[in-house]
Amino acid sequence: MKNRNIAFLMLIIGIVVGSLPSVVTDAQDAPEASERGKEVYEESCAHCHGTEGRGDGSAAENLLPRPRDFTRGLYKIRSTEAGELPTDQDLYDIITEGMPGSSMPGWETSLNADDRWELVAYIKTFHEGFKEREASPREITLADKISYSEESVEIGKGLYTDLGCIECHGNIGRGDGTSAPTLTDEWGFQTWPANLTQGWNYRGGFDTEDIFKRFIGGIAGSPMPAFEGDSFLHFGLTSEESKRLTELENKDEMTEAEEEESGLFYEKMDAAVDVALNRTEGMELSTDEQQTYDDAMKVVYEKSWHLANYVKSLMPEERPEPAIGNSVLRSQYVQGALPTIDDTAWETFEARYFPLVGQVVIEPRQFNPTIDAVNVKSFYNDTEVAFLFTWDDRTHTVDETDEETGETLEDALAIQFPVKVPQGPTAPKPYFLYGGRLPVYLWHWKASAPEQVTELTAKGVDNVQVQEVQGDLQVTGTYTDGRYKLWVKRVLKTNDKKDLQLDPGVFVPIAFSAWDGSNGDIGTKRVMTSWYTFVLEPMPSSRRFVYPPLIAILSLGLLVGLRAVVQRRNS
Amino acid sequence: MKRLSLFTICLIILVGSWLVLRFGIGGVVSVPIPASVIAMYMGLIIIAILVHISVEDSLFQEFLRPIRETLVDDRRRIRRRVIAVLIPLFLLGYTYSIIAQRASPPGSPRDAHPSPPLELTYKDEVIGTMQDVVNPFRHYEKDDPEAFKAHVENGRRVYYQNCFYCHGDHLDGQGHFAPYLQPLPANFQDPGIIPNFQESFFFWRISKGGPGLPAAGAPWDSAMPIWEDYLTQDEIWDVILFLSDYTGYQPRTFGEAH
Q: Which chain B residues are within 8 Å of A559, Cβ to Cβ?
């Protein structure tokens, strides 16, 4: 009897386990489009993507990136090859998870799975291509993945330069390449190359596989090309051949034999590019042509894995935690001189992360921020405090003229404190946006004058005054590879009543505003934070070495004493 | 099986109740119980144990026996030494961690439901008393469903052009700016928000924003804009209709009793 029960149980477990993978991992196809899909679309999507799916909903004009225009069938995030439409699963995943770094939220908690599938079906009706599609789209294979290693990252780093990624994404990936400010998408809207060091803003995820798929499939509608045909350096050549050709091309003068050699390479490349073009257009390939294509793509796949590993190496594993709760900005005490801007002492600890949001309170407003966050570190000694602020900005703008207003745009940062630190948790702070009834004290730094900050007192955005007495602040500002670095040093106590006075152990509200000139930021059109907290971390009390051992010895003494008492009683 | 000594039983009860309070009820089942409440319960349990063992002298002696044995009996030498090391070590670590602890920043307590002024105003124009003002378009819901729908649609437009950055596509307070604001934007899908207030209250909060909050509830850090600077009265009333239409929650009314 018992055995039979066990056998029965095993059978059930077997069935459950056996059926699991098919439920969990298999990609699904959407149902037929229905009224329900339309209903959900109009309730949840149409305000951005438009009732006709043209990406022209009422909210669209304030958004960048713009909401997708579904009628063109150009989808950025796909698991399919260049020129292909996405799979149903791709669309479902985007609806479910959203697109980080854009205004597209994930709908996992607000729409159930059935409704999300209905949406996929409905969205497909906006583009004829989905209807005409006969075979299922060609998906990118991840089978030959080259796993992450120092060696692979090193190869990828070389490819990053060779393939021309630098032109848009910049020397070390901060999206600050020379052509970065000139890019537009298929619809003519400005688009910025990704800052590769901020994986959390990648629209389609930042796993190595995700990055790899963006290379092979391209990001449709954006200037990011798919790695195929003539958008890939030396398409059709093996790695060795490609190296040799580069070598030849770099020669001042080629011998006749070398001319001939490079000519052969060009022929080979042309042939491969032609085959790739034919294939994209849907032509049947002969066995030979198929072979040419496969050989060419084998090289592309291999290089793409190395490049993906390199890109992965550029970013932290996760978005840093905002500096709230116990992870507030704590200035470290040092004895003697404070470290200057390039001192390695700054590398000894993690910066605090202050994410920025668009200022949408006062006109003109900024709905589409381009600066992600300000990172801050600080040291202080008995008389002074030094801060190191860093933030990524794709362009170094010092005097660009706004085409519409004629105003001069430039990059800037403002660090804001209250003039008087609120005493106690319920004491009011000044209004977070440049103060109000209660004044704020500001350090205003501009990229055009990198060696100075201006001390300001403000009681609101339209009541800002340059302080008559400018304190003796030491300032250094630099811009390299898409990153600003600003170092500011001030004495803890000043004689100016309009300045903030600093004492160790006192929690001081701190807030930031930043301007990206090339994004049209000026005045109230800026990115900012609400109030955060900063403290000169007091030296830990030396009592910590006195009391604990004392208590330990005392407790041991008590135990011994207790034993003596019991012993005496017993005898 | 050897019977457990009275001391061991008491110890098990003590540790067991602490675990249940701290992790059983506190951590798993509902919100954590505050440490002070746990301390109170534990105090009661200790008193109960002391009362129990001091009822009879024999019981008290029985309770003390293992302690006495551990202290003096030679057969318990190993246990004695272990305890003589562990207790001081524990106290050493505990006091050190308390003294070396870094100060935490002050919290920011806030009034969840700020009290509105007596009069509802738009810019400087008085609309009426907070108690009496009703949404001028609400009556269309019964009288003219088509007109009502048009107002809701206009409210939807206003919402997605101005509000969804913070309050979210789904009105759940999770817009793409929201994670980096303190306090977090209101979640209209929360059943405690819309049904608890009159529409005039929403009109007040929307039109005056963070800067219009009363001084009594400081420190206000709200990033809510002063919307009367950008929106017309009608637009504000329409967006209020949209909020309740989308979420399905009806704002509170003080109409006649049914």
A: 71, 83-84, 87
pLDDT class for B30, splitting at 50, 70, 90? low
B119-247 under CATH 3.30.70, yes or no? no
Residue B97 has pLDDT above 90, yes or no: no
> What's the CATH architecture for A325-539?
Sandwich (2.60)
The CA distance from A355 to B242, in Å, is 31
Both structure tokens of A1: 């009897």
Are A531 and B168 in contact (CB < 8 Å)?
A: no
Distance CA A62, CA A6 (A): 64
Of A358, A530, A559, the CB nearest to B221: A530
Q: What is the pTM of this model?
A: 0.84
Nearest residue of A to residue B214 by CA position? A428
Supply the pLDDT for residue B29.
62
pLDDT at B136 over 70: yes
**CATH topology for the A28-132 domain:** Cytochrome Bc1 Complex; Chain D, domain 2 (1.10.760)
Rounded to whole angstroms, how far apart are CA atoms B91 and B95?
Answer: 6
Average pLDDT over residues A219-230: 92
**CA–CA distances in Å: residue A257 to residues A264, A495, B184:** 11, 79, 71
Q: Which of B61, B68, B71, B181 to mutate to test the interface with A (most CBs of A within 10 A)?
A: B71
Cβ separation B99–A107 shorter than 8 A: no
Residue A23 pLDDT grade (very low, low, confident, very high; cuts 50, 70, 90):
very low
Residues of B in contact with A421 (CB under 8 A): none
